[in-house]
Amino acid sequence: MPEFQDRVLKCVDCSAEFIFTAGEQQFYHDKDFRNEPKRCKNCKSKRASAPGGDRGPRQFGHAGGKVETTATCSQCGRETTVPFRPTQGRPVFCRTCFQAQRATAAAAG
Question: What is the pTM of this model?
Answer without folding.
Answer: 0.46
